[in-house]
Hints:
Blueprint: H1 3-9, H2 41-48, H3 50-53, H4 59-63, H5 71-75, H6 79-98, E1 106-107, H7 109-122, H8 130-135, E2 139-140, E3 152-153, H9 162-182, H10 185-194, H11 197-219, H12 221-224, H13 227-234, E4 252-253, H14 276-284, H15 292-300, H16 306-318, H17 321-328, H18 331-360, H19 381-393, H20 399-402
Parallel strand pairs: 1-4
Antiparallel strand pairs: 2-3
Helix pairs in contact: 1-16, 2-6, 6-7, 9-11, 10-11, 11-18, 14-16, 18-19
Amino acid sequence: MSEKLQTRTHPLRLDDYDISPNRGFLSAFEPTSIVLPVELEPIRTAALDLPRTLPSGRIRELLARLPEISAAVIEALDEPQRRMAMVHYSFLVQSWVWGEDEAPRHLPANLARPIWTLAELLGQQPLLPYSSYVLDNWGRIDQAGPLTLDNITMHQGFLGGQDEAWFVLVHVAIEASAGGLLAEFPGLLAAAEARDTARMHDHLVRMIDVWKVINAHFDRMPERCDPYIYFHRVRPWIHGWKDNPALGPGLVYEGVEVTEGAPQSFRGQTGSQSSIVPAVDAVLGLGHADDPLRRYLDELHAYRPPAHRRFIEAVREASTVRQVTESLGNTTLITAYNECVEQLARFRTRHLEYAATYINQQSRDRQGNAVDIGTGGTPFMRYLKKHRNETREQLLRDKLAVG
């Protein structure tokens, strides 16, 4: 039975996909409260100590001293512990690769084997993913308080400092607020199945209100994250090793038998691994023409946590929101649908603006030309505007108003 048919008798449930109305795609557990077994204490300590040790310029010498944690220890961890171990290991791996002037060709077995095991258990890739950088990497100052920008901290960092923390925490706040968007999905899908104009309108209006909060969070990025500091002190740590000239064919994961010693290439951490925008595209029935950025974004789908991938796929299969809105021809409903699309376009516009100021304008080659290669390893500026424009081009035409 298809997901679309199942939604008629078994409505979409957020908790089936590790999602909640209060936290969205953020971890259901409190990352700072997770206790790892004693065997992993040297790993946790070394990771949390990175802001102190990275400036030494000899990080590989220090990381090479770490014990290799066995697969049996990692396999015995519960899900929250595995995810927190992944946070720490992924920061250590990125530090090994980018912590000294010349990129290495090999990742030592004491880092390679544990992160490979964790990645397989979690259904992700063996380097820093967005989930470890953002979704599982926060804490609350006041444990009884909300997940708001004035009450959250970054748990694991590289160099530390306000700019690095603020960059991550704005994303955490966006993800937390997006739970309110996702909470409307089940009801909106059910209302569309029933062709219930009033209920569809109410769900869309509530989504618009949440979008305004999300966009307000995004607008605050420049307050405490300076473009120069971001580009030179924050961004270098999150690059991957696919389509990256510094690493050539990729990185050899020493001691990982399944690779047979061949270099491995993976995309770097990027906000495009967030599930918010693709989930909203899916529920609104929005698509994008084939181009390098869309193919790249499709590739990034595999970098999301498996439950979040399944959620996007289920919503895309189940949603008839766009078709029903268009077929009903109700002016009020079309207006609400279009405003939801506009809020998404505004988010994409801000992303485009930040790509220009935080990356494009900071990345000048020796001839003074801007270099538009993202941390995922692909050109971005030329396509971000196109995707924003495509979003607006999918606004529904009100046939009653123009006919």
